[in-house]
Amino acid sequence: MGSAVKQGSGKKPKVVSDRVLRALFVAGERGITTREIVDEVYADRVDGGPLHADVSVRIAIFHLRPRIAPFGATIVSEGGKGARHYLRTLRRA
Predict the structure, then answer these.
(1) From CA 38, how far away is CA 89, in angstroms rounded?
(2) How many structural domains compose the chain?
């Protein structure tokens, strides 16, 4: 019998989300591509991260949006799969 191998990012979701948020913050107004975020999040891995690291980043961005909204911030994504992402503060009226 073969054994099942669980494949994943190898990092806990909160660690990935925190690193994604940090990468967005550091990028500032210039924004950052999904690939650049993957490079930042998985910089400590010699293999560059899991096979679908870009999906992990997009999922982290999805989960970050409601977490940062109470602080008057959002993540704006422009483009498709290789999108550029921006951390924006919302102007209050």
Answers:
(1) 23
(2) 1
